[in-house]
Design a protein that fits this description.
Blueprint lengths: L18 E5 L2 E4 L4 E4 L2 H4 L8 H11 L12 H14 L1 E3 L2 E3 L3 E5 L2 H17 L15 E5 L8 H5 L4 H4 L9 E4 L4 H7 L4 E6 L2 E2 L5 E2 L2 H14 L2 E5 L13 H5 L5 E4 L10 E5 L1 H4 L15 H16 L2 H17 L4 E7 L2 E6 L3 H10 L2 E2 L1 E4 L2 E4 L7 H23 L5
Parallel strand pairs: 3-17, 7-8, 7-9, 9-12, 12-13
Antiparallel strand pairs: 1-2, 2-3, 4-5, 6-14, 10-11, 13-14, 15-16, 16-19, 18-19
Helix pairs in contact: 2-11, 3-11, 12-14, 13-14
Length: 412
């Protein structure tokens, strides 16, 4: 394979490895060596690799047409939207949850940008029904430290990690940061300019930290009390990842807006915003759009993913395999804590995570270090019990050997 790295931007730290193909939860390099994929394209390849249903849907759609633009009806988009709306509906403790309409875009950061615009649009006409300029312009959004919402300027400004901000200021204003899992701090931050709260049900990039149930429920109650929009970033947690179709089902809350991407297309680039009827109708023609958003190819992939998750019971598999993975990791020497929901899991280590992830790759296991001592795992939803057990075995062996080398002064 030719080396064309001199043609690429150097903004990624890439492992010196390329894959030729994959099957299920496994990837293979040019030498035919097998790797167990426990990061899944960063929680994206939910059906694993080369799933026949997804491959067939993409090939069939590409053979008919790929893109016609949103100037016309797109039946594939409408079908995917219906599947998402239906999947969002659940009854939790007698409460009917669900969302009504979908806007398709191309990524998680675009989905979050759209959610921010929806919140700003609603706040611009405060009080509701007052018309343009009919009241106080409420534009501030409460967000949390340690959050990650994307790389474009709006979503970056909402991201609670100063490291990602460096060199890109001045960022858009209007985001008020509070501590995660601190309901009192969120309540104290609300003022006459607040229009929404934006939060992740699980902090993914900061080490897989789930929200406490009373925290998310309290945020929803706060939003209802103060007439704020309750926005959930489920880019990483949505589409079966946490052992429910959406993480908000775990918590029994009903958001006004949910953002999705990653697993939504099984590896095909696509994002989505789901919203309640009255909130979705805030965006009128000309307010927002996307040239590629909701194209026929991407939404055919979405439909294939949603149907496969339903038909193969993959939400239930994610729940069961996630429990198995967490239980296995808890027995590994050198792991101090295991966190997560479903198949979004982190292992907290007594040692640095970076060298462990690098050595795991040498041992045929793909994982990644998200924090200095935190390893993240996000196997595909189709992962089997045997593969979970094999992954835990490889991880335990890797951690043991890495710790031994560090103790001997070896390192890498």
């Amino acid at each position: 394979m030719s080396d064309d790295r001199d043609c690429l931007f150097q903004n990624y730290v890439r492992a010196p490895l390329a894959f030729t193909h994959g099957r299920g939860a496994k990837l293979y390099d040019a030498a035919g060596r097998e790797y167990l994929d426990f990061i899944g394209g960063i929680a994206t390849s939910c059906l694993g690799h080369a799933h026949p249903k997804l491959v067939g849907a993409i090939a069939e759609q590409a053979g008919r047409y790929i893109h016609v633009s949103n100037l016309f009806r797109i039946p594939e988009q409408e079908r995917a939207a219906r599947l998402l709306v239906d999947a969002s509906r659940a009854t939790v403790k007698g409460r009917n949850l669900g969302l009504d309409r979908v806007f398709f875009c191309n990524s998680g950061t675009e989905a979050n940008e759209a959610a921010i615009k929806i919140a700003r649009k609603r706040g611009s006409a405060w009080p509701m029904g007052g018309g343009s300029g009919g009241g106080t312009n409420r534009h501030e959004i409460i967000v949390t430290h340690k959050s990650f919402h994307g790389r474009t300027l709006g979503s970056l400004a909402a991201t609670g990690n100063p490291r990602y901000h460096q060199g890109f200021g001045p960022l858009p204003q209007g985001f008020v940061f509070v501590e995660y899992n601190d309901l009192a701090a969120a309540r104290a931050a609300v003022n006459e300019k607040t229009c929404a709260v934006l939060v992740e049900p699980v902090l993914g990039e900061s080490g897989v930290i789930p929200a406490e149930p009373e925290y998310l429920r309290g945020l929803e109650a706060l939003c209802r009390e103060r007439d704020l929009l309750f926005l959930l970033d489920e880019v990483q947690t949505g589409v079966g990842r946490t052992g429910s179709m959406f993480a908000f089902h775990h918590y029994g809350v009903q958001p006004d807006v949910v953002t999705l991407a990653k697993a939504l297309g099984g590896g095909v680039a696509v994002g989505a915003v789901l919203a309640r009827e009255e909130i979705a109708l805030l965006l009128v023609p000309g307010d927002h759009g996307s040239t590629f958003g909701g194209n026929a190819l991407a939404t055919a992939a979405v439909a294939a993913v949603m149907e496969t998750i339903h038909d193969q019971g993959l939400v239930e598999n994610a729940r069961a395999m996630g429990e198995r993975l967490r239980a296995g990791l808890a027995t590994v020497d050198g792991v101090t804590e295991v966190r997560g929901l479903g198949l979004l899991v982190a292992a907290e280590l007594q040692t640095e995570a970076g060298p462990v992830a690098a050595r795991a790759l040498e041992n045929g296991l793909l994982i990644n270090a998200v924090r200095p001592t935190s390893i993240r795992m996000a196997p595909p939803l189709i992962v089997t019990a045997a593969e979970i057990d094999r992954g835990v075995e490889l991880f335990a062996r890797t951690l043991q050997s890495t710790t031994a080398m560090a103790g001997a002064g070896g390192g890498r």
